[in-house]
Every structure is written in structure tokens, then in C-alpha cells.
Amino acid sequence: MNAPDFTPHDLRTLAQLSRPIAEALRTSQRVDAARRQDHGHAPGMVLLGRHNEVELVTPPAKALLDRLRGQSPATHEPIPLPVLTVASMARQRAHSNEAGSAPSLEVPTASGWLSLHASVPHGARAGQVAVVIQPATDTRSVGLELEAYGLTEREREVTGLAVKGVSTAAIAEQLFLSPWTVQDHLKSAFEKTGTHSRRDLRSKVFYEEYLPAIGSGAPLDARGSPVEPTPRAPA
């Protein structure tokens, strides 16, 4: 039996529902990415006062600060130099009202690279700076973060290398692509993630996704939200 054609009312209804349906599908994709995210490298946060006194430090940050201190064993300063450096960069940017992504540093340690990002929190007291410290994410985990924004597999491969600092020419050679194709994939990634440059994209992957909940010290999912505790079975 042949189904009747769609009426104009049916078409208007479908058009109105297309956006919510698309958003629901994207949300489902983000949840799936979150479930497969590796929680073994939680970021930490240090909140510094005007004179670089520690006002807050999350549990993951304590271990990461120890890794940074290991770079200068003879130094007994409570705050490692890279943290003070990126904090100073954030204060200078805030003082000059300079727009752009959060200042960042990549620091090598004996057990791998660490990413540091700093910003002045909204409504913060004068001189207050939040510094996020996280093990530099590998290409696979970056891919999971980018999957949440609907990037294709090839776009995730290209972007995962780009945020690690690999040049366009090197990405093209490694993935057997032309430099123009690499640029096209990056342009698409920028549009899907709402960014405009490699630096903006790196900031989103390593920093912005974690900031809303990081101060609680709770386990984080792939979007930076606290993981709900597993209910205990009744005794």
C-alpha cells in the first residue's frame, strides 16, 4: 500500500524537529566518547593569590607539581618556575585586556610532558590566577575529545597531530596527504569546534573542556564534567 505524500504541515513539523534531532544525535556521540575516555590522566588546578601564594590545589595537581619540581631537585620553592611563568603571562594578558586563548606552556619532565594553561577567573580578586596542569594528551585521547564535536576519523587524525605541534608538511607526509588536504581538514575541524587557529583548538582540548568542574577534584568525563558516583548495592 502506497503511503500518502507529506503535507505542507508535515514538512514544517519535520523542519522544526531537524535541529533538536541533530543535537540529540551529537549529544549521544559525546556520551559515547566520554564512556571510552581514559581517566588515568586527570588534570589538576592550582589557584594562586596576588603574591603567588597557594589558595587552592586539587589532589591531582599535587602529584603534577611534584613532577615539575623534579626538574630542579635543588629548588625548594613551593611553586615550580613553569607555573609561576604561565601565571605571570595570564596576569599580563588580563592587565592589557588582550584577547585570545589562555597562555600555555609545554614542559618536559622525567615521566613525560606536561601542559600548563593559566587564566584569570571571572570575578577573581586582583592578581588571582588559576593554573591547570595536565599530562600532555596523546593522539588517541585527543581523538576521543574531538569525536565529541563530530569530527570525522581523518579530521581527528590530522587535528590530533596538529594540536601536538606537528607541522602541516609533516602531517601530510605522515598521513600520505597533500598539504592542501591537511589544511582543508583543519579548516573543517575549526568550524566544528568553534575555533579559529591551532592555538585556540589546543586550548579547547586541553583546557576549556575541564575548567567548569576541575576545582572540585572529582573524576572527569570526556567533557570535563564530574563523573556520577556508582550507586552502592543495598546491604
Summarize the structure in words.
The protein is α+β, with helices and mostly antiparallel strands. Among the domains are: 44-136, Beta-Lactamase (2-Layer Sandwich), CATH 3.30.450.20; 139-205, Orthogonal Bundle (Arc Repressor Mutant, subunit A), CATH 1.10.10.10. It is 47% helix and 13% strand. The chain is built from 9 helices and 5 strands. The chain has helices at residues 8-35, 59-69, 81-95, 139-147, 153-162, 168-175, 179-193, 198-208, 211-214; strands at 44-48, 54-57, 104-109, 112-119, 129-135. Strands 2-1-5-4-3 form a 5-stranded antiparallel sheet, sandwiched between helices. The N and C termini lie far apart (57 Å).
Brief summary:
This protein has 9 helices and 5 strands; from the N terminus they run H-E-E-H-H-E-E-E-H-H-H-H-H-H. The chain is of the alpha+beta class.
- Broad structural category: alpha+beta
Give the tally of β-strands.
5
In the predicted model, the low-confidence regions spanning at least 5 consecutive residues are 33-40, 210-218, 220-226, 231-235
Spatial order of strands in the largest sheet: 2-1-5-4-3
* N→C terminal distance: 57 Å
The description of the largest β-sheet is: 5 strands, antiparallel
Rg, Cα atoms, Å = 21 Å
Shape: extended
